[in-house]
Protein 1
Amino acid sequence: MSEPPSMPELDALEAEVSLKEHRLQERNVKAKARQQELQRRETALMEKKRKLEAKREALRLKETIIFLKDEAQRPLSEAGERRPVASETQPGAAEDYTCRVRHQRVLEREAECRRLERELRAVETWEFAIARHEECLKEEDRNLAAATRLISKVEELEQDLLREEARVQKEEAVVQQQQQINEKTSASIHERDAHLNGIEAKWLGDRARGAAQTPARGGPGGASS
C-alpha cells in the first residue's frame, strides 16, 4: 500500500478543498439571490401590467365621458343661448356667433383628442417597454437555468476527476508493491546464483587438486622386469 501524504501535502489538500467548497457555496448563494430577484421582478411586472390595463380602461372611460359631455352641450351652443348684446340687432350675428362657438369647441375637441393620443402612445410605449422587459427576464431565466446546468456538470466532472485520481493512486500502489516484490525476488536470485557459483568453484578446485595428487598408471616403478 502507498504511504499516506505528509502533513504539508495534507494542509495543501485541505486548503484546496476548503477553497472549492467556499466557491461553490458562493455560487449557490448568488444563484438563490438571483432567483429571488427574478421572482420579485416578475411580481413587479405583473403589478405594472395590471396598472397599465386599469389606466387604459380609465382613458377609454374618460374619452367616452368627454364625448358625451360634448354631445350634451352641443344643442345649447348651437341654439345660441348666450348672445352678445351688440349682436342681437345685427342680421346674421347669431349665426356667426354659433359658428364661432362650434369652431372653438371643435378646436378644443381636437386638442383633447391630441392629448388623448399622446397619452395612448405613452401607454403603448410603456406596454412595449414592459413586454421587452418581460422578454429580457425570460432570457435571464434561461441563462440562469443554463448556468445552473453548467455548474452541475462541472461538479459532476470534479467528482469524476476525484474518482479517477483515487483509481490511479490505487493502481500506482499496486505497481509499486509488485516492483518491490520483483526487486526482492531478483536479489534472492542473485544471492542464490552467487552461492551456487561458490559451490561450483569449490567443487572444481577440489577436483583439480584430487587429480593432481593421483599417480598415473604405468609410471616409474609401476611395472616388474
Protein 2
Amino acid sequence: MDTSSNSGPSAHDTSLAMPKLEPLDEDFCLDNVTEAPAADLDHGNLSSTNPKQKRPRGRPRKHPLNSAVNAGKVTKGRSKTGCITCRKRKKKCDEAKPRCMNCEKNAVVCEGYHEKKLWRSGKDKASDDHTEASEDAVVFHMQPLFHGVVTVEDRLFWKHYYVSLSNVLTVEGEAKNAFKDIILPLANKHQGVMHSVLAMSSKHIDYDTPYGAKLLQQNPGTSRAALQSRADYHHQAAMDSFYADIQRSADEGEIDQKTILSARYAQILCLLIGTLIEGNPHGEHRVHLRGYQLLIQQNPPEDPTYLAFITEFFQYHIYADEVARHPGMNGPRLTCQDWTPLASPEAPRLLGVSDGLFQHLPKVAAIKDTIRQNIYNVDESLTMMEGFKPFDPALTLLLVPCQIIGAACFDHPQQERVRGIIRQVRGYTGLRNCDRTSEVLEEVWRLMDEGDWLSAWDWQGVALKIGADFLCT
C-alpha cells in the first residue's frame, strides 16, 4: 500500500486553505488616500445619462450625416405679443406696426394689438384702490387700420365681403380671387373704394335670413337700425368720393391719377353689383355699363392685370344685358358685333367672354328683333289686304300672301282676319284651291294652340301630312 496517498495536505493545498487576513486600523494611513480623477467621474456620468444609442438597421452610411447642425439648432419660443388676428388664426406674426404685414399680405384684416398699459407694482395698485382706474391707467390707443373701417358695423360689413360676397362673384377659389387680390388692396389705398365695398356688402346682408339673424346675435354691440344707418353713410360717402374724383385733376391731392382712374372703375363695378344685389327693375345697371364703356374708350387702365379683370367682368354683363333687353327700352344697344378684348385674363373668371360663347347672344337678340319687326309687319300686311274692295282685280294675287302671312299669325284675332280675306278671295275668283289653303292654315293654327311649334313652323310638312298637294295661287 502506497502511504503517500494518505499523507497530510501538500504545500499547495495549504496555501489555498490559508485564511485571508483583513488589515487592521493601524495599517491605514488617511494621508495616503487620494481623490479619484475627475475624468473618470465625468465618464461615469455621461455613460449613465447618455446610454449608447441603438444601431439602426441596414448597412451603415458611407458618409454619415453631420448631426452637429441639428444639435446646435435652438427652438425659438412662441411670441406673446403678436397681433390679435394672428393669435386667433394661430399664425406666426411679424409684429409690424401699425399693422401686421403677414395679415396684409394674406388680405386679412389685422385687428391690431392689445392696448398697452404701463406696468405698475402691486404696492402702487393697492395704494390707488380708492381712485378711479381710468385716471391712473395710461392707455395707448391705435388709429384705425383701414380708412373707413372704424366701427363695429364697418368690421361686420368688411368681414361679410371677405368671407361671403367676394366668393360668389366669381368662379375662382378662395386662394386666388380677384375681388380680394385686386379690389381690397385698391380699397386700402383709396378711401372711396373702401366706402363702395362696405356699402355694397351691407346691401348683400339679408337680416331676415338665418345668416343675418346669426350676425346680429354674434354682434350684440350693434343693431339692425345702426347697421342700416352706417350703410347709408358709406353709400353717401362713396358717391361723394366718386364725383370728387371725376372733377379732380391729375396734379391734385395726395393720390396719383393712376390710382384715381383705377378707383373709378372699381366704384362703377360696386355700383353695378349693387343693382344685382337689390334686383333693381328700372334698368339702372345699363347706366353703369354705359359709364364703363365711355371710360374704357377714353382712359383704359395701364395695369394689364387690372385691365383684363375689369374688361372681362363688365363685358360679361354687357352680353348678359341682351338676354332681357327689349328694343323698346330707352337707350341704344350696348353690345357690338366686332368687339375684341383689350386684354385676356390668364384664367377665365366668368365664362363666355374670352372663349367667345357670349358673342352669340347679340346674334340671337338680332333674330328676336327681326321676329318682333315681322310681327308688326304681319298686322300692317293684314290691314293692307283688308283694304281691297270685294271686286278688286288685285284679289287674284292675295292667296300667296294669305298662306305666308297666315302661317305667322299667332293670335286668334289675326287668324280670324286671314279667314275673312281668304273668303273674299274665294268669292271673287271661285277657285277651290282657296279651300286647300284654308285647310293647311287651320291645321297650322291648331298645332300652335297645342304648343307644337316645331310642326307649326313647317307648314309644307303640315300640307304633306293632311294630303294637300296643291298650287297656292
